[in-house]
Amino acid sequence: GTALPQMTNHLGTVSEGVLSTMIMKAAYRAIKEYKKGDLIMDNLSTYFVRPLQIDSEIVLTPDIIEVSRKFGKVEIVITHQDRMICKAMLTAQVLEQG
Predict the structure, then answer these.
(1) Nearest to 95 by CA among 29, 27, 40, 34
(2) Cβ neighbours for 81, distance < 8 A, ≥ 6 positions apart
(3) pLDDT tens, residue by residue, 85-94
(4) Could you say which of 1, 15, 26, 75 has the lowest number of CB atoms within 10 Å?
(5) Are 74 and 64 in contact (CB under 8 A)?
(6) What's the first-to-final CA gap in the chain, in angstroms?
């Protein structure tokens, strides 16, 4: 995707909140391929390595660590021009539909 001007903070870089939301959506989408049901975020640890400029093309790559009956763990890497911008680990509770 592309970092739009509406996603910026007061420093002119992409807001951490926007990146966190994108990370959550990527992780949820990856877990939903394995488990049906609803997800509730339990924990999100994010490491911002470099600032991201406006109009930058970014790639989010989720890597599933583990999906069990009750939890899912995903590592997400955000890159721009093959350089790591951010790395995150997300744990979510899986609520099975019944």
Answers:
(1) 40
(2) 57
(3) 889 999 999 8
(4) 1
(5) yes
(6) 35
